[in-house]
Protein: Aminotransferase
Amino acid sequence: ATKFARRVGDLEASSIFRINAKAQALKTEGRRIFRLDAGDPDFETPGAVKAAGQRAIEQGYSHYTPIGGLPELKDAVIGKFERDNGLRYREDEVMVTCGAKQALFNLCMSVLHPGDEVVIPQPYWGSYPAIAKICWATPVYLETSIEQGFMPSPEALAEVMSERTRLVILNSPSNPSGQVISKQALEALGKVLERYPDVFIATDDIYEHLRWDGNQYYNIVNACPALRDRTVVINGVSKAYAMTGWRVGFCGGAADVVYQMNKLQGQSTAHTAAVSQVAAAAALNGDQQCVRDMVNAYQRRHQLVQTGLATIDAIDYLPAQGTFYCLPDFSRIIDRLEGVDDDQQLADWLLDHLGIAMIPGSAFGAPGHLRLSYATSDEDIEEALERLNRAFG
Ligand code: PLP
Structure:
């Protein structure tokens, strides 16, 4: 037997972590580094939310809460689902987690058997396949391309579904592509999923509010209400309210699956910090202008990225409709750079030669691409794009 369990032995160390660490190290050496690698808003948590957290400390929120979350936060979550998503959940159909990530973890641990298949559209957030593997399930990728707008097609979905499929994960707007799945596309995917009554669906809506496509938000349950009771709607406060470090996520789904997820969480983290839960309730119930202000900034910065990339012919690029990422195709740059054979080496080259940090697309199932984050200052974005233009324009 090996020293460590196979579930961790098989996990690959994330190249996100590697690039983050290298960028930080170069910065510490005194080099000017453009952090287009961040997965974290560069804004502060809104003042009213911080104040609610501070009050919670004073008011003695220093004790265990119910596993599924404080009643006032669960009410805020139920209110949010109804207000923003038109979805009605009872108190036993929602739960609070340590970030959206734990909602996904709880779900996977609750429904996956060893050998089950988890269908994941490409490009994807790397935690989807990683968590599936921890559960001894097999990720099965649904391929998309920049030409088809990174959109999962119903035909491709039908092709990868099998009798072993147990879970399908959807994420819109998408980390890393910034693309939104349209209502029509969701309806078409829903029609396929309706043919598989034993399959669960996770819709990861964490970037729901970070959008500038001008449309109302739709997830798979909105598009296909018949799927409600086998879909877990995952969301949280991390991205919309710049609250990544508070660790509050939440989800809604049928009472039976939420019950299992509660049992599991009760034996792991139990729950996220009480103080964080009070702050998250303030975020969900409070004035939403803070979210609009941050979205306006992301949209403006995205415009800077778009303008900058347009000057570089060798980089193919699909404008994002949301998030604070996009996923330009650098394959032609890789082809022409001496000593650079793939996106991993290109990410290192860009850091070493231009001081620009971006995450290799292969971490998201998109080799040849780089994830460019614009959760950083306008000035840094403009200067980084200038440097790219001077090198490759
Ligand atoms: N889902 C996606 C697609 C993400 O990109 C992230 C964070 O990067 C998360 C979930 C995790 O969010 P949380 O901080 O709520 O765990």
The two ends are 53 Å apart (CA to CA). The mean pLDDT is 96.
